[in-house]
Amino acid sequence: MTETAQLLERFRRGGEFLASLTTGAAGAELDFVPEGGVMGIRSIVCGLMDGEMFEHGVFSALIAENSPAIPTFDAAAWAAGLNYRSRKFSGAVELFRRIRAENHDLLKDLEPEAWGRRGLHPKLGKITLAEVFVNHLEHTEGKILYIREIRALYKAFRQTGMTS
Q1: What's the predicted TM-score (pTM) here?
Q2: Does residue 146 have a pLDDT over 90?
């Protein structure tokens, strides 16, 4: 299996990984922010959902256009402006899964040369589809693993009243 195929398989499994990791999360646990943290599970999942939709546009532009401008994603602005703390959690998980599946379908059969298509990012400069994809994959996986950590901290907090 090629490195690209391995990355695409990790990417494909991301929606199910998020869904399984958040199964049973509800109530106060969704909005619990550990000491030193910034967001709870609900806000992180909403950010992942919006980020996945955002990246669909980026992936599509890089595939379809010649040297497109790649916009930045200001996660803090989206979280505040879209009021993540009041959003429906289950809908965000499901939409992330669906968009992730669509993104996988978009990317899985690309010719190798398509991964080298470039766009211009205001902070990163010239960037390839492969670089955007790997950055997005790693960022998303990191956030999903952080959710696991928050769930463990919430469980400890409930048992002891301490967050660390």
Answers
A1: 0.93
A2: yes
- For 152, counting Cβ atoms within 10 Å of its Cβ (0-12 exposed, 13-18 middle, 19+ buried), the class is exposed
Task: Report pLDDT for 151.
Answer: 97
Task: Give the separation between CA 104 and CA 118, rounded to whole angstroms.
Answer: 19
**Per-residue burial over 121-143, b = 16 or more CB atoms within 10 Å of its CB, e = otherwise:** beeeeebebbbbbbebbeebbeb
Evaluate whether 115 touches 130 at the Cβ level (below 8 Å): yes
Domain 3-160 grouped into CATH 1.20.120.450: yes
Query: Per residue, what are the HEC states of the chain?
Result: CCHHHHHHHHHHHHHHHHHHHHCCCCCHHHHCCCCCCCCCHHHHHHHHHHHHHHHHHHHHHHHHCCCCECCCCCHHHHHHHCCHHHCCHHHHHHHHHHHHHHHHHHHCCCCHHHHHCEEEECCCEEEEHHHHHHHHHHHHHHHHHHHHHHHHHHHHHHHHCCCC
Nearest alpha-carbon partner for 42 in 82, 12, 3: 82
